Amino acid sequence: MELKITSLDGKAGDSVELSDAIFGLDPRPDLLQRCVRWQLAKRRAGTHKVKNRAEIHRTGKKMYAQKGTGGARHGSARANLFRGGGRSFGPVVRSHEHGLPKKVRALALKHALSAKAKDGGIIIIDKATVKDGKTKALAGHFEKLGLVNALIIDGAEVEVSFANAARNIPNIDVLPVQGINVYDILRRGKLVLTKAALDALEARFK
């Protein structure tokens, strides 16, 4: 697949050939779903917690005599039957993380990139820089490129002024190439790769 390299001003430049091994696969929804589920499970805090009867601050003394009251047989007031008592089988603090093989993750990333390429959602730019780090100037560049909802991937390091200018624009994410992931690719309408990011991706999957 061949794409034009554009500048932030919207001017077309040279062409670049995208590798079919990375951008030319037939996307598999099952792989994408597995990877997104893995990512979202990893970032869950898992801090939900209830108190069981051992953690309730109440006396454990038997409430009343076993026989002769006409009522049900009760012991501790900390039991889950009573208002303010402990809860049975409630959530506890735990990790929701589960495993996913590294090769599956790498393949899912290729399929996510291929899905964007197939939909025509990939834009290649020469570099991600903006003068003086002004949000207004960067928003003007995005308007020329038609970027409303996009993930921008730069090289090993994102220019600080560009990142500062972009963070005030809604629905625009900026990441270095090592932070590229399936979930962020799929949740944004366009994927913008700099030439440095493209070279790094091809070197990574070589």
Q: Can you describe this structure?
A:
With 206 residues, the chain is of the alpha/beta class. It has 2 domains: 149 residues, Ribosomal protein L4/L1 (Ribosomal Protein L4, Chain: A), CATH 3.40.1370.10; 41 residues, no CATH class. The protein is 33% helix and 15% strand. The protein has 7 helices and 6 strands, in the order ββαααβαβαβαβα. The relative contact order is 0.18. The model has no long low-confidence stretch (mean pLDDT 92).
Largest sheet geometry: 6 strands, mixed
Enumerate the spans where pLDDT stays under 50 for 5 or more consecutive residues.
none
Task: Work out the strand percent.
Answer: 5-15%
- Distance N to C terminus: 17 Å
Number of individual domains: 2
Q: Which structural class fits the helix and strand makeup?
A: alpha/beta
Q: Find the CATH topology of the largest domain.
A: Ribosomal Protein L4, Chain: A
- Under the CATH scheme, the architecture of the largest domain is 3-Layer(aba) Sandwich
Specify the helix fraction band: 25-40%
By DSSP (H or I, 4+ residues per run), the number of helices equals 7
The side-by-side strand order for the widest beta sheet comes to 2-1-3-6-4-5
The CATH homologous superfamily of the largest domain corresponds to Ribosomal protein L4/L1
| The CATH C-level class name of the largest domain | Alpha Beta
- Evaluate the radius of gyration: 27 Å
H/E element order: EEHHHEHEHEHEH
Shape field: elongated
Give the averaged pLDDT, no decimals. Answer: 92
| Number of separate strands | 6
